[in-house]
Amino acid sequence: MQLNVTRLERVPGQPPVRRKKPHSKSRNGCVTCKLRRIKCDETQPACLNCSRSRRDCGGYSPPKTWIFDSESEPGSSGQWLSLSRLTPTSSGRADEQRALLFFSEKTTPLLAAFSQFTLHFWNSLLPQLTQSEAAVRHLSIALASRQEMCSCAPSDLLRLSRLRSEHYSAALRVLTRSDSPCSLVVVLMCCLLFVGYENFQDPAEQNADGLVHLAAGQKILDERARRGINRADPATPVIDAFIEPMYLWLELVSSMFNTPSSGQAGIVFPTNITCPRLPTHFSSLVVARRAFFEICRWRYHCDDSVPAFRHVRSLLLRWHRLLMGYHDSLSESATLEKMMVQALTAQYRLLFAGIVYSARSDFSGDSRFRPYRVDLSDPSRIVVDFTIPHRCLLILYDIGLEKVVTSNDTKLRLWPLAEVRELDDGRGLVRLTTQA
What we know:
Blueprint: E1 6-9, E2 17-20, H1 31-36, H2 48-52, H3 94-111, H4 116-132, H5 134-149, H6 154-175, H7 184-199, H8 209-227, H9 236-254, E3 267-268, H10 285-301, H11 306-329, H12 335-359, E4 373-375, E5 381-388, H13 390-399, E6 417-422, E7 428-435
Parallel strand pairs: 3-4
Antiparallel strand pairs: 1-2, 4-5, 5-7, 6-7
């Protein structure tokens, strides 16, 4: 077995620097090794890792064909392959297969744009369930169709709308069948897909219904914990390692705009915070991020009255229109910059839903988490502190939330960085920091 050796390089007068030996990264490993997060030797038909540890090798996923990649064909200008280029397979119609490919190549990267954990979640667990579970597959197609409707040609709008409605309804039928109930993993996964589905709604029509699905799934997990977790259940490792951490992380981020448990007294802010004034256009993503940051600071400064909320909402909707205007002003060759805009938009929509969620009176008792302190004293940072039960602390420890972000990632990120530590009484402290 080839080992990835880390060596120390010493420079006179400086501490030793660890450098990894160059190595190639493969994404063709077996399903079991991917779930265990270890390197697979890719031996066919069963890898040696699984054979030696006496595990059932989950086999290998078929190689992907990146039909939506603008660089997949020489001379391509970003045009997608037409539906006529695809042929039906034994597992579905051509339009369904096309939607699943779109979901894999276009939707998943946006859903996974928030952290390394979300990247692993959407790229590892979801593809397996899409292949084996009808409800997950139907919702994936509906979600992909809804996303594509946001930017498709007018001639494709009716076709995509019908495909979306057909598979959304089919997913609901599968989930509500009494004669063949879905497994707990499928139900929880579908709740997350419903969150993603609502996330592609026009922000002007956003009513935070996606977070209602998140709360419903979290209640199922809370009931599971209350009754006692069956460690012999084969689904337990998947729920513990993937699904429950995702619910907890999304719940914390979407709760960061809730009024602190101590009310306005829990917010530390200087007296010189003023209402942000948005420019007539965004000249760069750095300018867009800074404007969003200032709106978020202003949200904490405002009270919970209806006029104050409406003012913040109007600022955020205008911010979104300016960002879309910046996207439309980019040249056809600015493919990477357009992808960054899409990633920012996906993060914005869920944070926007969190702000709407925080203002809905019918959810006032549903949220488990409220900040106990919000610190705005540093004009370049927003720091939101939560206390969480010890069990939640252990879940977050396992997924390795990011504490730092590289400068190259700065303009891609609206979501906060997270720091988790244990308090003296055994509870956890989660600190979410949003940087300007």
